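Sample pair:
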Amino acid sequence: MRPVEIVKRSYEAFSRGDLDSVVADFDPEIEWQQAQGLPHGGTYRGVEAVRRSIFDPLDADWWDEFSADPDEFLDAGDDVMVLGRYRGVAKGTGKRLDVPFVHVWRLRDGKAVLFRQFLDTRGWVEALAP
């Protein structure tokens, strides 16, 4: 399976709420770079750290509704760029999130070894702020 197909499969699993399938395509030592300026911005290493620090708080702490909707997949061999939008409704505030993102993935031997997130964090922070 080509890297772009693996990345597409990950977004499809995320949209179904199937996090086990999302992380199944991650290398155990994945490096995950979350945009600075987000409440959970920074670099995380390993599947467990990513799941605990990135995925678990999405529903538990921050969003009543949340989606990462890809619009375009750019195939660059082992690197895949995804252009899309984050959409959601913040817990506590009820404010809407609708901001564009760029995700850059690097795969090796069929597993994601690197993820980099780029977005204007202001919309995310404003939606969560009381």
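Residues 46 and 82 are 21 Å apart (CA to CA).
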